[in-house]
RNA sequence: GGAGAAGUGGCAGAGUGGUUGAAUGCACCGCACUCGAAAUGCGGCAUGGGUGCAAGCCCAUCGGGGGUUCGAAUCCCUCCUUCUCCGCCA
């Protein structure tokens, strides 16, 4: 959520920012004007209401004094007077709530402002490569995609998964199931022992409020799964960014405690409503997948540096696994709703002969903090400021499994186990057809 | 699932209809005393919003939301959370 005071003072800057996010000039302008109009209506109304409340409060105090002085005639006279204001105040409070709600609803669907150093662009074709790491060997003519490798090994089963749950689910068995578990453990251990993140076990079902806090609601409800819960519902987390970030919601964190760095290995659930027909084969795009997530909570001055640090932590996972990758900055048009700047890490898939996203690290500034009311007490103890939040995959476990399978495949159909994973695999060196 | 109790400022803890945004203690900040520290004394110390050049003034907030009343931390409804007992259960 953006700061309405800032919008009031910089309406043209908001229009420019929205245009950078591929909004049309007309839409950006009318949305901005609408926000400002709603804000003004709200404030004008509050002013009138507060004057009425002021008169009521003063009169009520006088009534108290009159009654203490046993001057019942004066008390009754004042009561009659305040009685008239009362209905105005009651209607006024209801109207204030209505105007406030309408204003917040409008503000809640405005995306975050891109940082100045984010390249302008329309879609993923305008993203800018920052670096390429690792050697991409010329694709062998026998290189295959992960689903062929997995099915031939008899360890990856889409048919039965579909019978259980439909499309976009996968059953893994034996050493392949273990390999995925090994990947998750390896990543978690790396971040907790070397990168300073605290491991957290979080709920996988969360309230709407939490989803609003991270920006998944109200705009992206169709991407989420919900389960009924009493009269209400709970959402399945699309990423542990949601519970990890909301850990500081409605709190004032002491400045000395920042930065907070959290990591978690959790399943993630996504309806993939808008991606029918995309990546239908294999386990690249699933309704359910494991991911190791990193979340940092920082003060206002440290978030940009923390973003570089977090990106490096994610890259380190791929370096240790010896997987070739490249890191790109998303252009303004390709960035997510809550992000100010996003680095995507794309891993090389020899079977697909292309780079595919395996991590996405974003700095959100105070955008999510406003939605969560997450603050910290300033160094000098003066004011309470909104924290800055960052999140990044460190990395997607399901996709890491795919990357390992494709990059470590052998011509005979076996998969070499990467060195760093062998301790997690009981020393196993190769996964092969039995 | 059934029965009961409770949610007040950073923390502890008063307050059951009228200058109570809230006693008191602790913590914290400033000053005094001291060579320095401790102890002691004095003063300060909630958040959000509106308005104003500013000093300030005003409004709201005692778990959230709604209501009763001239007036609500205090009464009513509802939701959330925590705790205790019973039942069930991984």
Automatic annotation (TrEMBL):
The keyword Nucleotide-binding applies. Keywords: Aminoacyl-tRNA synthetase, ATP-binding, Cytoplasm, Ligase, Nucleotide-binding, Protein biosynthesis. It catalyses: tRNA(Ser) + L-serine + ATP = L-seryl-tRNA(Ser) + AMP + diphosphate + H(+); tRNA(Sec) + L-serine + ATP = L-seryl-tRNA(Sec) + AMP + diphosphate + H(+). It is found in: Cytoplasm. GO terms for cellular component: cytoplasm. InterPro entries: aa-tRNA-synt_IIb, aa-tRNA-synth_II, aa-tRNA-synth_II/BPL/LPL, Ser-tRNA-ligase_type_1, Ser-tRNA-synth_1_N, SerRS_1_N_sf, SerRS_core, tRNA-bd_arm. It is an enzyme of class 6 (ligase). L-serine binds at residues 239-241, 270, 293, 391, 393. Transmembrane segments: none annotated. ATP binds at residues 270-272, 357-360. It holds the Pfam family Seryl_tRNA_N. It comes from the Bacteria. GO terms for molecular function: ATP binding; serine-tRNA ligase activity. Residues 178-418 form the Aminoacyl-transfer RNA synthetases class-II family profile domain. Gene3D superfamilies: Bira Bifunctional Protein, Domain 2 (3.30.930.10), Serine-tRNA synthetase, tRNA binding domain (1.10.287.40). Its EC number is 6.1.1.11. Catalyzes the attachment of serine to tRNA(Ser). Is also able to aminoacylate tRNA(Sec) with serine, to form the misacylated tRNA L-seryl-tRNA(Sec), which will be further converted into selenocysteinyl-tRNA(Sec). Belongs to the class-II aminoacyl-tRNA synthetase family. Type-1 seryl-tRNA synthetase subfamily. Homodimer. The tRNA molecule binds across the dimer. Consists of two distinct domains, a catalytic core and a N-terminal extension that is involved in tRNA binding. PANTHER family: SERINE--TRNA LIGASE, SERYL-TRNA SYNTHETASE. This is Serine--tRNA ligase. It comes from Aquamicrobium defluvii.
